[in-house]
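Private note to self, pasted from the team thread so I don't lose it. Backbone tokens:
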């Protein structure tokens, strides 16, 4: 009996999917804790599953696996729609020849849902695109004003540097920022409000729209981040560039007033969009340029001053050397002039005589040659006779004494040397 009961229960929970000629199958089933659908006739490369709930079910989840019964949180599935508590769930499955097991889980035992499965050779995106969104291999491409993994959520696009968003009561609004070629500058959003009760900002970190519920989500930090903005406490959010990319990037936000149902005044959220670090970078570049120019100018001035000082010092040294030389020459010039003048005076004091007046002196005592050789003869005051050339050279050698008697040739000593007798 137990075996029969188990067989009946398993047969009720697990069903084989039998496609029609167009590889299409659909069914309306009761909500259950574990409904299993098995696809074993795999003639198509892609299989798509869509589930539509007839009523809201916050516990409903749709998952799948290959060659084994799927398990919650370990098998693949439409977890985004589960977190969003949506009535429509969607799966894209590529079996690669393996058996597909699809499971629906719900804590409710009352209610129904419609499940549709079809096979196709076409690789659609892994969700059904709503609001005229275009389906591509990597997902839905939404038109302006819609966001989400299937473009189901309306949102306000932030296009200007400053935006004002108004809230009435406790309504939740969605808005997004589309960034083209996000590879050059970081983005900064400055959020402020006039509400003293504050506005709660939810930053979406996925392509889907996840609205936080009262129950904390599993691994919540990987999907959303929340901020609170007050009239005295604004927020600055910085989004850093992820490097060169040709794809557009959406930053999605959900916002709602805190205790909005208690506040009858309209709340305002101001969003100021700037490029983070633009002023700082510009200021830094200007400062760097000024510093480089100042250092370069200082180095050039120092080099110029060095060569100018070196040139001035060199000129001073040359002038000093010139002055020293001039001083030396000026000091030597009178002596030389005096000596030359004395030599000329001494030579002029010698008396030119004829050969008959030589007093029987036949030879010049300097060159020892005969005086009678048609050369001019001069006589000293001590009455000794010499060729004029010879005695002049003698005097030029700074010799003031007579070559014969060593008497001073100056005129003062003339009378001290009598004329020799014949």
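Design output:
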């Amino acid at each position: 009996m137990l075996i029969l009961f188990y067989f009946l229960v398993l047969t009720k929970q697990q069903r084989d999917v039998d496609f029609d000629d167009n590889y299409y199958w659909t069914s309306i089933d009761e909500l259950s804790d574990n409904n299993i659908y098995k696809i074993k006739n795999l003639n198509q490369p892609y299989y798509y599953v869509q589930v539509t709930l007839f009523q809201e079910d916050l516990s409903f989840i749709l998952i799948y696996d290959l060659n084994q019964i799927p398990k919650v949180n370990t098998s693949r599935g439409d977890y985004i729609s589960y977190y969003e508590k949506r009535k429509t769930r969607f799966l894209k499955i590529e079996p690669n020849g393996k058996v597909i097991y699809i499971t629906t889980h719900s804590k409710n035992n009352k209610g129904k849902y419609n499940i549709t499965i079809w096979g196709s050779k076409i690789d659609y995106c892994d969700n059904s695109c709503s609001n005229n969104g275009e389906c591509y291999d990597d997902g839905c491409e939404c038109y302006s004003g819609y966001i989400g993994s299937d473009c189901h959520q309306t949102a306000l696009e932030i296009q200007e540097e400053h935006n004002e968003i108004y809230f009435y009561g406790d309504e939740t609004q969605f808005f997004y920022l589309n960034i083209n070629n996000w590879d050059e500058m970081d983005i900064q959003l400055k959020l402020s409000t006039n509400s003293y009760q504050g506005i709660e900002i939810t930053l979406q970190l996925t392509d889907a729209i996840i609205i936080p519920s009262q129950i904390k989500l599993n691994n919540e930090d990987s999907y959303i981040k929340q901020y609170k903005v007050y009239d005295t406490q604004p927020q600055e959010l910085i989004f850093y560039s992820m490097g060169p990319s040709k794809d557009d990037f959406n930053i999605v936000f959900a916002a709602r007033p805190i205790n909005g149902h208690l506040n009858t005044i309209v709340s305002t959220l101001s969003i100021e969009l700037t490029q983070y670090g633009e002023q700082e970078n510009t200021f830094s570049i200007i400062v760097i340029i000024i510093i480089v120019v100042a250092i370069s100018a200082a180095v050039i001035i120092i080099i110029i001053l060095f060569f100018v000082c070196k040139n001035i010092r060199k000129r001073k040294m040359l002038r000093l050397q010139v002055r020293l030389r001039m001083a030396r020459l000026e000091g030597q010039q009178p002596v030389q002039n005096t000596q030359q003048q004395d030599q000329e005076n001494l030579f002029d004091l010698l008396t030119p005589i004829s050969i008959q007046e030589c007093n029987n002196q036949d030879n010049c005592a300097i060159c020892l040659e005969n005086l009678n050789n048609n050369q001019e003869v001069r006589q000293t005051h001590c009455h000794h006779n010499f060729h004029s050339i010879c005695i002049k050279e003698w005097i030029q050698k700074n010799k003031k004494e007579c070559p014969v008697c060593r008497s001073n040739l100056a005129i003062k000593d003339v009378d001290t040397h009598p004329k020799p007798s014949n």
